[in-house]
């Protein structure tokens, strides 16, 4: 298992999406496991928590699970149909660009924190409805 103290490499991305242009971040774990690693798309709906808390969560997930993490933070409700559509487009982009991110396009996960977990669940259901290849099961969070 990767060291919890190993640093993550982080890069900012700018995605063109259906709602508006969106900033995202990619987190890569240190050189601990063989690439390509699974790609975790992590959603958060903006709330009272500072974005720094979301950054810390993504860094922990990257290090502790040896995943490449693509983080996307939304300011609006995760139940908004436009946000779900936007999140689906982001997942499609992630699947299409996983190899360029040194991640495995066949091992995708979708997760969320707080209201972002409802958004992640909506995305998981839609992938099943559209006949996508299966996503990896959700992480067992305590």
Q: How large is the share of residues in beta strands?
A: 25-35%
Structural class: alpha/beta
Which strands sit side by side, in order, in the main sheet? 1-2-4-3-5
The rounded Rg comes to: 14 Å
Ends apart, CA distance between termini? 18 Å
Give the rounded overall mean pLDDT.
84
Largest sheet: 5 strands, mixed
Shape: globular
Q: What is the number of beta strands?
A: 5
Q: What portion of residues is helical? A: 25-40%
Can you characterise this structure?
By secondary structure, the protein is of the alpha/beta class. It is 33% helix and 29% strand. It is built from three helices and five strands. The protein has a five-stranded mixed beta sheet with strand order 1-2-4-3-5, sandwiched between helices. Strand 1 (9-15) and strand 2 (22-28) form a beta hairpin. Helix 2 (81-97) crosses helix 3.
Quick synopsis:
The chain is an alpha/beta fold. The chain is built from 3 helices and 5 strands, in the order βββαβαβα.
């Amino acid at each position: 298992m990767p060291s919890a103290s190993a640093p993550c490499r982080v890069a900012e991305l700018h995605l063109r999406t259906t709602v508006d242009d969106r900033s995202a971040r990619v987190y890569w774990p240190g050189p601990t496991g063989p690439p390509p690693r699974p790609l975790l798309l992590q959603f958060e709906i903006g709330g009272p928590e500072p974005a720094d808390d979301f950054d810390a969560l993504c860094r922990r997930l990257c290090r502790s699970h040896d995943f490449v993490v693509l983080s996307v933070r939304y300011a609006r409700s995760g139940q908004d149909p436009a946000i779900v559509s936007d999140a689906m487009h982001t997942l499609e982009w992630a699947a299409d660009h996983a190899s360029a991110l040194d991640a495995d396009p066949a091992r995708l996960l979708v997760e969320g924190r707080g209201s972002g977990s409802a958004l992640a669940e909506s995305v998981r259901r839609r992938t099943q409805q559209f006949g996508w290849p299966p996503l990896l099961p959700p992480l067992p969070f305590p």
